[in-house]
Design goal:
By secondary structure, this protein is of the alpha/beta class. It has three domains: 3-244, Aminohydrolase, N-terminal nucleophile (Ntn) domain (Glutamine Phosphoribosylpyrophosphate, subunit 1, domain 1); 252-438, 3-Layer(aba) Sandwich (Rossmann fold), CATH 3.40.50.10490; 451-590, Glucose-6-phosphate isomerase like protein, domain 1 (Rossmann fold). Helices cover 35% and strands 24% of the residues. It is globular. It starts with a strand and ends in an 18-residue tail after the last helix. Bound molecules: 2-deoxy-2-amino glucitol-6-phosphate. The site of 2-deoxy-2-amino glucitol-6-phosphate (AGP) has 15 residues, from helix 10.
């Protein structure tokens, strides 16, 4: 996912741009660049590779006097990582320069027409087409030119645009790609995400899709595509810069694991009032909820794994069919969605392209959309009928932990809320379960004390080549998440398997010393899962068992046991996932992996 910054103010812009880009590095990128207006000329400096290459090349930005500029970190979509394909992209006549996050879906036909009209391109990117169109459609009026280009391009885009003829102002546009505005006395800023803005200011404007922003050192104006000026409330970000920094931890991931009790408190507490669910964020009619024909939960990666837990819980309580689907499959499956369907979309970033497109398809079929999102004002949030925000704060590490856990807590509340509306459970049952949900932060605080012990255990597994996680029902859902956590940051091959399914093939891979984690926290299925643990043990596996503190385990059947507090079945997934997060983290640490920025991964996959 690309990162965009822009600044216009009363001080040199280059250091502000580079600092902002450095706080967006977590989004994953392969090249970086900035453009400034110096002596009425646009100067572009960009390099393939790490941002520090650009920072060193520009001597931390000290060699520019300019007070207006834009910057970009690129995560390649069209065209390989290279200097030429890095942003910013200049128009052929050098009058315009653009940075872009998203995809111009009709860029190929536009590029062909422009080439036929004699335009020469210097990159393979879709973004350079925007620069070319600005040149082609320029009529001396910056705003009108931007508007005319927006009439022509299709797709998703957050754009930052400067023009050599207007050295005191620049434009930005937001459509289905994140962009926010920062407001300060020293100048005004755009960025793809809050951490980039915090060093300058904590006062921001959230933007909506199809909004055009005109920015000078003194003023920020927001317009709709018809040129109507829009009002916007200033939002004060409570996160200080340190909240987006590591806060003394070695990695963002372990910081965010340790932040889970607070993230959960912040997410759960506002949704409970006087022992009842308080979903003021949700305004589905009782009529609609009572007559839901089915529920689809659509997401990617870890968010999808939350959906797998959700399926078990919502079906059990609401007695309605729940289909949990990987977004990239859902969107091409001609899904069975009607105007009586509820589609729950889960996404930390709120910008995952497949999830966003799946949402649009569900909406086009008449479904009501409830999204569970961590980023306020994100593209998914903006087009949902209702949004439940996970107040997890900025999650920087590519491997999600606190956002995942807060999503889980909201899924429990949604399950109770819908089931009570449908009438399959009563208010006493809800009140009893709410009390259990409110205990989650405290339970997790207890489990986090196991970190040193799990760190020691992890050292034994640092040299694994394969790992298998097995469980039944929601234990299987946690096995999926545990497996992903391990493989995405330690690069160990790992598989999650429904414990009962192992004997239908995969058990042939189990041999002397194979590492198997058995998740047996669902008390109703404990004996069943333990028989599967016995099967792998009998074939020489080294077994780590995750189970509740009061479950009887014979030492001969397992090699290590990690126990979680005895708790209500509903919230068990939230507890058993935490040792798995810690295990994945400490194995990756023992392997000296790049934990916060694993190879090939980005924090949010805004391309298909
Ligand atoms: C989780 O650790 C991964 N980084 C990844 O699977 C992630 O959950 C997935 O890309 C979905 O992202 P989203 O929640 O921002 O939509």
């Amino acid at each position: 996912m690309c990162g965009i910054v822009g600044f216009v103010g009363r001080k040199p812009c280059a250091p502000v741009l580079l600092e902002g880009l450095s706080r967006l590095e977590y989004r994953g990128y392969d090249s970086a660049g900035i453009a400034v207006i110096e002596n009425n000329n646009i100067v572009v400096k960009k390099t393939k590779g790490e941002l520090k290459t650009l920072i060193n090349l520009l001597d931390k930005g000290s060699n520019f006097k300019s007070e207006i500029g834009i910057g970009h970190t690129r995560w390649a979509t069209h065209g390989k990582p290279s200097n030429e394909n890095a942003h910013p992209h200049k128009s052929m006549n050098g009058k315009f320069v653009v940075v872009h996050n998203g995809i111009i879906e009709n860029y190929a036909s536009l590029k062909e027409n422009l080439i036929n009209e004699g335009y020469v391109f210097s990159s393979e990117t879709d973004t350079e087409v925007v620069a070319a169109l600005l040149e082609k459609l320029y009529n001396g009026n910056f705003f009108e030119t931007v508007s005319k280009v927006l009439d022509v391009i299709e797709g998703s885009y957050a754009l930052g645009i400067i023009c050599a003829d207007f050295p005191d102002e620049f434009y930005a546009v937001r459509k289905a790609s994140p962009l926010i505005v920062g407001l300060s006395d020293e100048g005004n800023m755009i960025a793809s995400d809050i951490p980039a803005i915090l060093p300058l200011t904590n006062k921001i404007y959230y933007l909506n899709d199809n909004e055009i922003i005109k920015m000078t050192a003194d003023e920020v104006e927001i317009f709709d595509v018809n040129g109507n000026k829009l009002q916007r409330e200033v939002t004060e970000i409570k996160w200080d810069v340190s909240a987006a920094e590591k806060g003394g931890y070695k990695h963002f991931m372990i910081k965010e694991i340790m932040e889970q009790p607070k993230a959960l408190k912040d997410t759960i507490e506002p949704r409970i009032k006087d022992g009842k669910i308080n979903f003021e964020d949700i305004d589905f009619s009782d009529e609609f909820l009572k007559n839901i024909d089915c529920i689809h939960i659509v997401a990617c990666g870890s968010a999808y794994h939350v959906g797998v837990v959700g399926k078990y819980i919502i079906e059990d309580l609401a007695r309605k069919p729940v289909y949990v689907e990987i977004a990239s499959e859902f969107r091409y499956s001609n899904p069975l969605v009607t105007d009586k369907s509820l589609v729950i979309v889960i996404s930390q970033s709120g910008e995952t392209a497949d999830t966003l497109e799946a949402l649009k398809i569900a909406k086009s079929k008449g479904a009501k959309i409830l999204s569970i999102v961590n980023v306020v004002g994100s593209s998914i949030a903006n087009i949902s009928d209702n949004v439940l925000y996970t107040w997890a704060g900025p999650e920087i590490s590519v491997a999600t932990t606190k956002a995942y856990s807060t999503q889980l807590s909201l899924i429990y509340l949604v399950a109770l809320y819908i089931s009570e509306k449908i009438g399959t459970i009563d208010s006493d049952f809800v009140a009893e379960k709410i009390k259990e949900i409110e205990k989650i932060p405290g339970y997790i605080e207890e489990i986090l004390k196991l970190a040193p012990e799990i760190e020691q255990m992890a050292k034994r597994y640092a040299y694994l080549e394969h790992a298998y996680f097995i469980g039944r029902n929601f234990d299987y859902a946690i096995a999926l998440e545990a497996s992903l956590k391990l493989k995405e940051i330690s690069y160990i091959h790992s598989e999650a398997y429904a414990a009962g399914e192992l004997k239908h093939g995969t058990i042939s891979l189990i041999e002397e010393g194979t590492f198997v984690v058995g998740l047996a926290c669902n008390k109703d299925l404990f004996k069943k899962t333990m028989s599967n643990v016995e099967e792998v043990k009998a074939r020489g596996a080294e077994v780590m068992l995750i189970t509740s503190e009061n479950m009887d385990v014979s030492e001969s059947m397992v090699d290590t046991v990690i126990r979680i507090p005895d708790c209500d079945k509903l919230i068990t997934p939230s507890l058993e996932v935490v040792p798995m997060q810690l295990l994945g983290y400490y194995i990756a640490l023992a392997r000296n992996c790049n934990i916060d920025k694993p190879k090939n991964l980005a924090k949010s996959v805004t391309v298909e």
